[in-house]
Structure formats: structure tokens, C-alpha cells
Design goal:
The protein is an alpha/beta fold and 378 residues long. The chain is built from eleven helices and 18 strands. The strands form three sheets. Strands 3-6-2-1-9-11-12-10 form an eight-stranded mixed β-sheet, with helices on both faces. It has a six-stranded antiparallel β-sheet with strand order 14-15-13-16-18-17. A four-stranded mixed β-sheet has the order 5-4-7-8. Helix 6 packs parallel to helix 8, helix 7 packs antiparallel against helix 8 and helix 10 packs across helix 11. The structure holds aspartic acid and magnesium ion (MG). Magnesium ion binds next to loops.
């Protein structure tokens, strides 16, 4: 009998039919003799709708109140799923992030988990319950409700898997595992069987929507094995664990068009850092004074300090794989392929597990296809 943490993403619980299929999937695992802790995302587009509601109310919503609002989405899913499981004859109990003992810092809308006290979850498991935890949320030491950043239900699943010493943490979505590129962009993309957590992290940082960056970092730091699976269908998914490849290899290509570039050369660095944090931006890379910032979790408008020059939206593609950033040859090959296809390279670099190129946003998909052909398919 294994203890497994399963997370179901928003599209897997988008409506009551799908919720019922998820309940049946959980019931099958229970029948097979496993102990299951479930983490759920908000149904479908709920989080976006709640955020839109806040922005219609005020252009810069108060972060505390924002968390009170957007934490509701996951609570809807957890309660409905628990009801459905009970109907199927499975003993189930839903808990909020706070009730599950997920303690975070005070950074509303982008909080980090600082401690997990899973006593209540553990005691329910011991009594034979399937525990359904609302993802994406926790509670600060001052007892405020916090949320973990967009995509944060993955984090909830991973921190619980670590705290409960689960056998593994399964992240279920409508995609069967992690692919070598977005199959909607690259027709020849293939599913990856095994990936190191480091490689997964580099992919997430490169803008791949597979798994949330913070969750991968936590899994790496706490030695949690992840499985990315399809909620429906027979796929075999991708296993992400500590034991990655040791040779340099290119496993996946990802494009990111949700970035902005700003030149901070003439500004006070601590003021820049504070503005980035307050706006919910994430620093992707610094090239001298120019920084690339991920805007996925941005809240409201950014109050840049004096001297910052905003260059606006940019697009960057990344090639990811163990130690790939150390390979001159792969970098040269891919750059030459981009060049031959007439893709203008505005900037480029490499480090650790990634190579990257800044290209025009309208050529990003082409660039992904070209580098996939040059590095992954060869
Ligand atoms: N519902 C949240 C979001 O849309 C968290 C998650 O789904 O992981 O970002
Ligand atoms: Mg997600």
C-alpha cells in the first residue's frame, strides 16, 4: 500500500462531468489499495475570472483581498470533489490550505511555503479518508490567507508529498507528461519518459507550462519524485526524479512570449528589485543592466524607479537539457540553423541546463521548430 499525492489541474475539473471522471479515477486507486491525498486546482478558467472581477473593481487590487478572492476557486473544486467521492462510496474529506497546515511567508499573491504541518491530513489518512486539499493556498504566521502564485497548486501537491513522505507526487493534466516541445507548435514533438528535476526546472524557467517552477524547485530540494500524467487516457507520462542524465543533451525546446525587457543601468538596484517583487514579476536573466522579466504572475501596473527604461514585450526561446548550457557545439549548431532560416537573433546566451535566444515574437514558433529540428531531432 503506497501513499500517493495526486494533483488535478483546472482543465481536469473544468465541469461536473470531468470532476466525476476524476472522482472515478481516485476511486480506482483507492480500490487498488492506495492511500490518496488529492490536491485540486480551480475549475477551468475560474482563477482568471476572479482576477478579472478584481481588476474591474480597481486597477491595482489590494493583495490581501485579492488572496481572499482567488483562494475561493480551489475551495469550490475541493468541496464538489469530496461530495462526488462520497456519492461513489469513498470516504473523503476536503480541507483548505490553512487546514492542511501549509504555512507561508506574508507575500500575498506570490507566497512561498515556509513550513508544512500535516498532522490533520495525516490523521485523516490514518482513519482511511481520501483527503482533498485546496491547491494554490496557505496561511501566513499572522493567520492571513495567502496564495502561491499562478500555477501554485503544483506547489501544494509537492510540499504535501514531501511532508507526508509520499511514494511520489502525480501531477495530472490534459497532457500526457512533458514533451520535447509544445505539440501544437512542433508536430514531431515527442513525450519524454524520464527527466531530471533540474531539467524540468530549466524548462519551467524557459516558459514551458508543464509544471510550476516553485513546485519543481521544492521537489528538487526535498527529493520528491514527480510523475506528470494525463488524467484521462492510457498514456505513460513522464517521470521526473533526481537521477537525471549526466551527459550534455538537448531534451526540449520552449518559447516564452510573456516576457518584458527593461534596462536598469541608470537606476538604483535595490529600488529595481523592490519594484520587481511588488509587481509580482520574476527575474529570468540579467544581461549587464538589461533584465528579462516574466509577467505571468504580475499584478497591476509596475512602479519603476527613476532611470529604468522599459523596452516592452520580448520573446525568448530556450533549449533545455542536462549541462546543455556548457555545450559550445549545440549553441553554434542551433544559432546557425536560426540564421539560415532568416530568424534575427537580438541577444543570446547560455548557462547551466539551458541555451537561449531572443527573437522577434512573430517568429518565435518558427524558431522553436528550427531549434527542435537542429538539436532534439538530430
Ligand atoms: N488556480 C490557480 C491558477 O490558475 C492555481 C493552479 O491552477 O495551479 O493559477
Ligand atoms: Mg498548472
Amino acid at each position: 500500500m503506497a501513499l500517493i499525492v495526486q494533483k488535478y489541474g483546472g482543465s481536469s475539473v473544468a465541469d461536473l462531468d470531468r470532476l466525476e471522471q476524476v472522482a472515478s479515477r481516485i476511486a480506482r486507486h483507492v480500490t487498488a489499495g492506495h492511500q490518496i491525498v488529492v490536491v485540486v486546482s480551480a475549475m477551468g478558467n475560474t482563477t482568471n475570472e476572479l482576477l478579472a472581477l478584481a481588476r474591474q473593481t480597481t486597477p491595482s487590487p489590494d493583495r490581501r483581498e485579492l488572496d481572499m478572492l482567488i483562494s475561493v476557486g480551489e475551495r469550490i473544486s475541493m468541496a464538489l470533489l469530496a461530495m462526488k467521492l462520497k456519492e461513489l462510496g469513498v470516504r473523503a474529506r476536503s480541507l483548505t490550505g490553512s487546514q492542511s497546515g501549509i504555512i507561508t511567508d506574508e507575500a500575498h499573491a506570490d507566497a512561498r511555503v515556509v513550513e508544512v504541518r500535516p498532522a490533520r491530513v495525516q490523521s485523516l489518512i490514518d482513519q482511511g479518508f481520501v483527503v482533498i486539499v485546496a491547491g494554490f493556498q496557505g496561511v501566513s504566521r499572522t493567520r492571513e490567507v495567502t496564495t502561491l502564485g499562478r500555477g501554485g497548486s503544483d506547489t501544494t501537491a509537492v510540499v504535501l508529498a514531501a511532508a507526508l513522505e509520499a511514494e511520489y507526487c502525480e501531477i495530472c493534466s490534459d497532457v500526457d507528461g512533458v514533451w520535447s516541445a509544445d505539440p501544437r507548435v512542433v508536430a514531431s514533438a515527442a513525450r519524454i519518459d524520464n527527466l531530471s528535476l533540474e531539467e524540468g526546472l530549466a524548462l519551467a524557467r524557459g516558459g514551458a507550462k508543464v509544471l510550476f517552477e516553485d513546485a519543481l524547485r521544492y521537489a528538487r530540494d526535498h527529493n520528491v519524485t514527480l510523475k506528470a500524467s494525463a488524467t484521462h487516457g492510457p498514456g505513460t507520462g513522464t517521470r521526473l526524479s533526481d537521477s537525471g542524465s549526466t551527459e550534455a543533451r538537448a531534451v526540449a525546446i520552449t518559447g516564452d512570449d510573456q516576457l518584458i525587457a527593461v534596462d536598469t543601468t541608470a537606476a538604483d538596484t535595490s529600488a529595481v528589485q523592490a519594484a520587481i517583487r511588488d509587481a509580482g514579476l520574476r527575474l529570468r536573466r540579467r544581461i549587464g543592466g538589461v533584465v528579462h522579466l516574466d509577467t505571468r504572475n504580475a499584478h497591476g501596473t509596475v512602479a519603476w524607479p527613476e532611470g529604468v527604461v522599459d523596452h516592452g514585450p520580448i520573446a525568448v526561446l530556450s533549449a533545455v537539457g542536462s549541462a546543455l548550457g556548457e555545450s559550445f557545439e549545440d549553441h553554434r549548431l542551433a544559432s546557425a540553423a536560426l540564421d539560415q532560416s532568416g530568424i534575427a537573433i537580438h541577444d543570446q546566451g547560455s548557462a547551466g541546463d539551458a541555451l537561449w535566444w531572443q527573437v522577434d515574437a512573430d517568429r518565435l514558433d518558427d524558431a522553436v521548430r528550427i531549434v527542435h529540428l537542429a538539436l532534439v531531432e538530430n
